[in-house]
Amino acid sequence: MEWIVPVILVVAIVVIAAGLYLLLARKALVHLNGRVDEEWENLCDQFSRRLELLPHLVELVKKYAPHEESVYISVMQAREQTAGAQTPLPAARTECSMQQAVRSLFEVAEAYPKLQASTKFLQLQSELRDMQDRVQAARRGYNVRVREFNSRLEAFPNTLFLRSLHYHRRDYFELDGTVLTADAPRVQF
Prior knowledge:
Blueprint: H1 4-64, H2 69-84, H3 88-110, H4 113-117, H5 119-154, H6 158-161
């Protein structure tokens, strides 16, 4: 009977330690989940800023090349699709089409020296390049947080307990590297 008290104490310590671990692990996961959401909102903000810039750029190019209607339509369609994407997977798909549409817009602009010499065009092109850089930085930040979250979720013994709390892997924002342009094409005279 003397061994019952130490056994009960050891079991109580193990149960308390396990409960404390689960509580802290859940708290860390909730925190990381919130950070992923914050990074996603930041990425969406960068998308919105870029989307506000595109109509100005299209209108300016349209003044110099009014007959390139199909290019303008594809840019505006890509803009609408990007604006409608609410989660990483559809947003990544629309981002690739956005990159292609913007590239085609700049290819049209390259054929018009007066447009390339326009200070307004150069300013908008520079702003778009800055926006692209910000989108890429926000995308990297989001993916870092997703990797941290997914790693924490899949670490043992979290896999045994935390998934029962309805936490699931978060999706990365991954792009097809063959389509992605780091920035807008450079204007050379």
